[in-house]
């Protein structure tokens, strides 16, 4: 008999049918002649209760195994699915027998061979700090919190593909190794097959490193964004998106930045900034709505144990209209607020400055009272490819800011005018020759086009209410951290 997933068992009607479940023990409780074992297999938030009635002859063969059973042990239970007399669960398993697959000792097991010593199972039934769980990232998916995060990540990945696929966007696999710096930000990881240790010993100190001899014949990096390559496909297939890993060697040790994160980047031809903003708003609402509808029990857990009110926040965003404000007006609002309350901001806002988290927070929570899209930023603080406005000072950029998190999406209309784009790149001291392929899009059949980038982990942070981005990806990579 094949074991069924707990998720499927819980949706069945209890007709005393035979079932087999396999999973890990979450709790075991004894009550007179009854032993309750809660089995979790991660297929959904809930586990299933298996009740052993020791006075029934069928359970006799399992008494020894039951007595030795610990939290974390892997087991198989056979029994019948019955209506549960307990509150909070519709069904439970009236268990006949138990097979212990792997133990998880609750006390240290010493052995003659050191490798065979087994420390007690670290996830004993109690609350563990998220910091501690980060150190055992290989075991943390067995906890309620990280199981829920993993399921939400999975479901949201599916929703992202679903959203774009149903709207005529083609999924493009942009390269992970690139020769260019899409953002012009410089925070890139180099990719090389050179022996760095040998280089460091100084063999090439005089001559410099000859990258023509490196694997790719030039200097290469891990991508910071798939956008430029996505643009090449958008100007052929009209609507495309990428959804893949991106890498930034940012030395910012914040709760919102990772060195390796996943990014969603749609790109649309024949589309301006208005279309881009409409897409961003519609997309976020769709994703949040999918989470509310399809991850209800996981979200209920986050709402009660992680961040009170997240369900209400998500519902509010789904039902709100995103406010729009130009960067110039936003700065004016912030300056006004700063003038009225001297201690309000750590960084004084002024035209030309990048918006700080505290500014973003103010704009969403005070000015707009909800999500807000800030547009038309000074060109100096945005990437080279953004379309220059007629004022010659600002670009057709938009950032979507949400309460609690700040920036969740950054996007723009791209410069489709060959001359303006070249001029901007030269002003920035960029090597135009390296971007010949990118400029070709403006030489041949150029077209207004727009897109945005959304950090997947930022999205998951927002949906789950988790506070640290390191806790919404299985194995976080950040400054000084690349374990597992
Ligand atoms: P921030 O100001 O927060 O560093 P950014 O302006 O560098 O963001 P973009 O270059 O516009 O961000 O990247 C697009 C999106 O990717 C951002 O809106 C954000 O959701 C996400 N993102 C950017 N950097 C990181 C990072 N280091 N870790 C996780 N997500 C990130
Ligand atoms: Mn950044």
What does this structure look like?
The chain has 484 residues and is of the alpha+beta class. The chain has 2 domains: 6-102, OB fold (Dihydrolipoamide Acetyltransferase, E2P); 142-188 and 224-471, BirA Bifunctional Protein, domain 2. It has 14 helices and 16 strands. It has helices at 6-10, 63-68, 130-135, 144-165, 196-200, 227-237, 273-294, 296-306, 310-319, 327-340, 357-368, 418-427, 436-443, 456-464, and strands at 18-31, 34-40, 48-53, 74-83, 91-102, 170-171, 177-178, 190-191, 220-222, 239-247, 260-269, 323-326, 372-378, 394-402, 406-413, 449-455. The strands form 3 sheets. It has an 8-stranded mixed β-sheet with strand order 6-10-11-16-15-14-13-12, with helices on both faces. A hairpin with a 2-residue loop joins strand 1 and strand 2. The longest helix has 22 residues, at 144-165. The model has no long low-confidence stretch (mean pLDDT 94).
User: If helices are DSSP runs of H or I spanning 4 or more residues, what is the number of helices?
Assistant: 14
Q: What percent strand?
A: 15-25%
Q: From the structure provided, what is the oligomeric state, counting identical versus distinct chains? A: single chain
Order of strands across the widest beta sheet?
6-10-11-16-15-14-13-12
Could you give the distance between the termini? 36 Å
Overall helicity: 25-40%
Classify the secondary structure makeup into a structural class: alpha+beta
Low-confidence stretches: none
Bound molecules: adenosine-5'-triphosphate, manganese (II) ion
CATH class (first level) name of the largest domain: Alpha Beta
């Amino acid at each position: 008999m094949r074991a069924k997933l707990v998720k499927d068992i819980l949706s069945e009607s209890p007709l005393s049918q035979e079932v087999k479940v396999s999973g890990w023990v979450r709790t075991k409780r004894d009550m007179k002649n009854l032993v309750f074992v809660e089995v979790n297999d991660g297929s959904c938030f809930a586990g299933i209760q298996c009740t052993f009635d020791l006075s029934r002859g069928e359970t006799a063969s399992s008494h020894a195994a039951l007595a030795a059973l610990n939290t974390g042990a892997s087991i198989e239970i056979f029994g019948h699915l019955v209506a549960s007399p307990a509150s909070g669960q519709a069904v439970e398993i009236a268990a006949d027998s138990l097979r212990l697959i792997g133990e998880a000792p609750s006390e240290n097991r010493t052995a003659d061979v050191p490798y065979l010593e087994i420390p007690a199972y670290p996830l004993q039934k109690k609350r563990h700090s998220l910091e501690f769980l980060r150190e055992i990232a290989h075991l943390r998916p067995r906890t309620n919190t990280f199981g829920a995060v993993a399921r939400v990540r999975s479901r949201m990945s599916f929703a992202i593909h679903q959203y774009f696929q149903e709207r005529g966007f083609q999924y493009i696999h942009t390269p992970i190794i690139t020769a260019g710096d899409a953002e012009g930000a410089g925070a890139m990881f180099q990719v090389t097959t050179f022996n760095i240790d040998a280089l460091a010993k100084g063999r090439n100190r005089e001559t410099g490193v000859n990258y023509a001899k490196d694997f790719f014949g030039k200097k290469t990096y891990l991508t910071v964004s798939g956008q430029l390559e996505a643009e090449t496909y958008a100007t052929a297939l009209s609507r495309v998106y990428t959804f893949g890993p991106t890498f930034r060697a940012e030395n910012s040790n914040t709760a919102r930045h990772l060195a390796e994160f996943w990014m969603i980047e749609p790109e649309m031809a024949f589309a301006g900034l208005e279309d881009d903003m409409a897409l961003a708003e519609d997309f976020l609402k769709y994703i949040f709505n999918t989470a509310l509808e399809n991850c209800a029990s996981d979200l209920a857990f986050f709402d009660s144990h992680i961040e009170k009110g997240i369900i209400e926040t998500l519902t509010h965003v789904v039902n709100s209209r995103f406010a729009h404000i130009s960067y110039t007006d936003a700065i004016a609002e912030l300056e006004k607020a700063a003038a009225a309350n001297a201690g309000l901001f750590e960084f004084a806002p002024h035209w030309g400055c990048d918006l700080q988290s505290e500014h973003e927070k103010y704009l969403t929570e005070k000015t707009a009272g909800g999500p807000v899209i800030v547009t038309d930023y000074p060109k100096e603080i945005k990437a080279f490819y953004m379309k220059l406005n007629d004022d010659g000072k600002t670009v057709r950029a938009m950032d979507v800011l949400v309460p609690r998190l700040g920036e969740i999406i950054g996007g723009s209309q791209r410069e489709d005018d060959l001359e303006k784009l070249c001029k901007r790149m030269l002003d920035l001291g960029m090597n135009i020759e390296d971007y010949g392929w990118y400029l070709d899009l403006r030489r041949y059949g150029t077209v207004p086009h727009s897109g945005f980038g959304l950090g997947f982990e930022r999205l998951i942070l927002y949906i789950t209410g988790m506070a640290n981005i390191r806790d919404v990806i299985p194995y976080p990579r950040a400054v000084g951290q690349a374990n597992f």
